[in-house]
Design brief:
This protein is α/β, with parallel strands linked by helices and 184 residues long. It contains 3 helices and 9 strands; from the N terminus they run βαβαβββαββββ. The radius of gyration is 16 Å and the shape is globular. The structure holds 1-O-pyrophosphono-5-O-phosphono-alpha-D-ribofuranose.
């Protein structure tokens, strides 16, 4: 695999900016869920870095669980408007406060699929926390309750977001120069 520096065109959101905003989100969530039960449900794989940083900024006691959802159809670099649940949570969410934690919302179909499924299980509340919101690409209206950053319609990677399943570990959100990236 290439070193990311060969195809990074710019850092869109730095590590410092990410961590500062995540701390703010954590404070807001801690206020909103004060003295309440809370279950964070992370959508794999992209949401995993965001979850682990966010939960360290949430002061109220909470549980975590995971779901895996894949979008499929038109190609690897853009989501397709269809989503399939590959891994479900183990937790009984009836009458619980559930907060979905996701790295990015694009068309909205991934969150829509998860929200539709979890709603059938009668949680007390069901909300969404998304680090990056590509509002320009939204195809269906879904509620996003907590947003880290609204970003333009450009191909970003790092901090959970992959290119061909790599580079998720980078601590910032970068923009790819597709002309310089050598696809696998
Ligand atoms: C990405 C991202 C979101 C979804 C957003 O997941 O992590 O889950 O696409 O797109 P949408 O709003 O158009 O549905 P991906 O399927 O690439 O899986 P990953 O998280 O494992 O990388």
């Amino acid at each position: 695999m290439q070193d990311y520096r060969e195809f990074l065109s710019e850092i869109l959101i730095s590590e410092e900016q990410l961590q500062a905003r995540i701390a703010e989100l954590g404070e807001q969530i801690s206020r909103d869920y004060a003295n309440q039960d809370l279950l964070l449900v992370c959508i794999l794989r992209g949401g995993v870095l965001f979850l682990t940083d966010l939960m360290r900024q949430i002061a109220v006691p909470h549980a975590i669980d995971f779901m895996a959802v894949s979008s499929y159809g038109i190609g690897a670099r853009q989501s397709s408007g269809q989503a399939r649940i590959n891994l479900d949570i183990n937790t009984d969410i009836r009458d619980r406060n559930v907060l979905l934690v996701e790295d990015i919302v694009d068309s909205g179909y991934t969150l829509e699929a998860v929200l539709s499924l979890l709603k059938t299980r009668r949680p007390k509340t069901l909300r969404t926390c998304v680090l990056l919101d590509k509002t320009e690409r939204r195809e269906i209206d879904i509620p996003v309750d907590y947003v880290g950053f609204t970003i333009p319609n450009i191909f970003v990677f790092g901090y959970g977001l992959d290119i061909d399943e790599h580079y998720r570990n980078l601590p910032f959100i970068g923009v790819i120069d597709l002309k310089k990236y050598k696809a696998l």
